[in-house]
Amino acid sequence: MLDTVTQAPPASAPRTRLKRLLMPWIYLLPALALLVVFTYVPVASMVGYSFTDWDGLSDDPAFVGAGNYAELFTRPELFQVFFVSLYYLAAAAVQIVLALYFAFILSFNLRLRNLFKGILFFPYLINGVAVSFVFLYFFRPHGTLDSVLALVGAHPDKLWLGDPDLVNVSLSGVSVWRFTGLTFVLFLGAIQAIPGELYEAAGLDGASRWQIFRHIVAPGIRPIIGLSVILAVSGSLSVFEIPFVMTGGAGESKTFVIQTIKLAFQFNKTGLASAAAVVLLIIVLLVTWLQRRLVPDERTDLT
């Protein structure tokens, strides 16, 4: 005859329940503390400064209400820099297409595929400032690009970073070169998570590569594509590193972030710069919300 299992006293049940509720928060506490100290508190301070005329140095900034926001929306030159983001948004679309293409091709058992994976991801590992200096020599007159074009008989004689019609195209091209590897890794990981039996079944049915991509790969990685679109839009609105190092925002290459930095540290208008940063944050959040509403995540069961 089996012995009766001894149950815990009823008094220990609330203690065990409380322990289970508190334990996840104890593990999350360090990360939450860092998030609050280095994210939420600075954002709250930025919002507070956006309603003042603080110059970044004085101890008693005057409250100006919505004056900084009114100045932002009534001075067209402060908002015209958003048109520069369209170049980077187009470059991000090219980046996503290239990354998706290479991720799909290299997901198959091809020769030297690991080498090509490393080549594609390597630019993202390089520091952005170093990348900018490398491409300064690449685009300089009679530099690498002009020398390569001369080998094929082309002599454009262009100032790639000095011509207002070419500078943003050149800079956005650098962005594509650097960040395609990151998007490629995201897509490759998602594609490799798709069960291999689906590829085998598609091969037995005589499906082409395009049919495999359309009916298996694309539905399977839809959440990652949505994430890439969000990163592309937010990244195109907040471009800073590459244009700042390569041109300093000169020649029609000034982005919204570069303008905000100059307002704060060059013209000592920290309150106005804070308002500009708040506007940028709201725009990014709004675009993200719209994308999530228009293209909601759908868990596709392919098995």
Describe this structure in words.
26% of the residues are buried. This protein has helices at residues 12-49, 67-74, 76-79, 84-106, 113-125, 128-139, 144-151, 167-192, 196-204, 209-220, 222-237, 241-246, 256-265, 270-294. With 303 residues, it is mainly alpha-helical. The chain is 69% helix and 0% strand. The chain has 2 domains: 22-71, no CATH class; 80-294, MetI-like fold, CATH 1.10.3720.
Summed up:
With 303 residues, the protein is an all-alpha fold. It contains 14 helices and no strands. It has helices at residues 12-49, 67-74, 76-79, 84-106, 113-125, 128-139, 144-151, 167-192, 196-204, 209-220, 222-237, 241-246, 256-265, 270-294.
Provide the descriptors you would attach to this structure in a database record:
0% strand; mainly alpha; MetI-like fold; 14 helices; disordered C terminus; 303 residues
